[in-house]
Amino acid sequence: MFRRANNRYGHILGILTVATAIAVSAIAASGAWSAPSDMSLVFDGEQAHLVAGNVAVPVHCSGDSAGFCTGSVTLSHGGKYTTIPFSVQGGRDDSLIVPLALGAGTKHPRKVHGIATTVQPRGPATSSKEILYAR
Asked: Which of 51, 64, 106, 126: disulfide with 36, CB 3.0–4.6 Å?
């Protein structure tokens, strides 16, 4: 089931990434808009929250408020992983809901590995990694 969901999200993310790259290139080439630089999504602290079989991850988009951080977040735990697309306005905090089952409850927080990859208006994508503790 997770593999099918990951495939579906992977296809959606691929389409979103290509469409974003084409749109940014076309707008920048027309001179109508100056693309913001250094847009990066970062995890906002080490804490995540378990919500109805999902993991709520606090994030922050650093960069110009006129731009957006766009890309994908991957969470993994115990050999399972889920990748979802995101788009967060520059300068804003948000919470991403990632469908990742972490198993039966314990009183101890679960260690989850997170990778956020942000497409850049110009140049290669940026990535941030974080160990998150989900409660």
From this structure: 64
What proportions of the chain, in percent to the nearest 5, are helix, strand and coil? 20, 45, 30
CATH tag, 2-134:
2.60.40.1940
8 A C-beta contact, residue 58 and residue 13 = no
* pTM of this structure: 0.70
Domain boundaries, the chain: 2-134
pLDDT digits (tens, 9 = 90+) for 93-111: 999 999 998 866 667 889 9
Q: Where are the beta strands (DSSP E) in the chain?
A: 40-43, 47-51, 54-62, 68-77, 80-89, 93-98, 110-119, 126-134
Q: Residue written as tokens 């969901």?
A: 5
